[in-house]
Amino acid sequence: ELTVLGKAQEFFQICDLEGKGFVTCQDMQRLHPELPLSLEELEKVFVTLDADGNGSLTPKEFITGFSQFLLEQIALKNDMVPPSEGETAGPVRCEETMSGDEDEEFQFSNLMDRLGAKKVLDDESDVKQLWLQLRKEEPHLLSSFEEFLVRIFSQLQEADNEKNELECALKKKIAAYDEEIQHLYEEMEQQIKKEKEQFLLKDTERFQSYSQELECKLLSKEQELEQLVQKQKRLEHQCTELLSGKEETKVENTKLKLTNQELLRDLERTSHELNLAQKQLQVLQEEASRLSEEKEMEVYWVTETLQREKSGLLKQLDFLR
User: EF-hand domain: from which residue to which, for each copy (predicted)?
Assistant: First the structure.
């Protein structure tokens, strides 16, 4: 059974050459050269293993289901073709000879290769020491220990795949946030520049304080943007640290999700403040327009007053004549 689980893991790696973390029906066709099954039979096996019908198999679904399938095939073959006495005696003697001659180092290395331990374990010395100790002192517990290793490495591989998927999703979201923030920053900078030119043309002294206030807000936004960049760097650093701590993967994933939510809230707050700044600019434009209309009205009333005075002077001049 341990050998079958190791073979199932090997088949999963053959199907998932791209490292997606799941296997599709098309990926399953890669086992055609490895197994005495036709493409149609492989497709039927995939449909049987895909219990939820989502069109893909996770490592756990594939390894568990395919191991059961191989065990059933082996049992069916043994029931259909029972070995003769001579055939039975030969393998037993060979197995006894190999058990006496095989090197412990080779057996342990072969076990680690079947489990794919090199992908999830940096140092195998502790596992090796315990395996050797059980082999020498408690051989009846060795099979249970190896089954325990199969479950542990399968869970670690699944956690590692989940971590990689989360890292990829986080990187995509961070890139999208950076692009959106940069776009908002450029729009705000262009709008502020345009408003500055209009203010200088109309009334520079009156609106200089407002311009400085907007510049301060722009500086504040730049600082917030820098803080977001720093948070992004901390996220990348946390992702790097995840590679060296497989046992803390779930806790770190939770922290990353919380940090991601915090970034979303910061982005929403920044967008809200940008909208407020745009509304303030609109208010300034309306005030500038109102001042222009007031000046035009003042010129109109002065002109009217001068016209009436001129008319009165002309009448007095005619009277004097």
Answer: 37-72
Terminus-to-terminus CA distance in the chain, angstroms? 132
- What sign has the CA pseudo-torsion 235, 236, 240, 243? positive
Q: What is the DSSP letter of 52?
A: T
Report the predicted TM-score, pTM, of the whole model to 2 decimal places.
0.28
Instruction: Give me the amino acid identity at 123.
Output: D
Q: What is the pLDDT of residues 49-106, one digit of tens each?
A: 888 888 888 888 888 887 777 777 666 666 544 443 333 333 333 333 344 434 677 7
DSSP letters along 28-56, please?
HGGGTTTSS--HHHHHHHHHHH-TT-SS-
The region that residue 285 occupies, defined by phi over 0 for left and psi between -120 and 50 for alpha, beta otherwise, is alpha
Place of tokens 């001042």: 291
Q: CA 181 to CA 114: how far, in whole Å?
A: 47
Domains (range + CATH), the chain: 1-76 (1.10.238.10), 115-177 (no CATH)
Contact (Cβ atoms closer than 8 angstroms) between residue 168 and residue 258? no
133-137, 175-179, 252-256, 315-319: which is most confident? 315-319
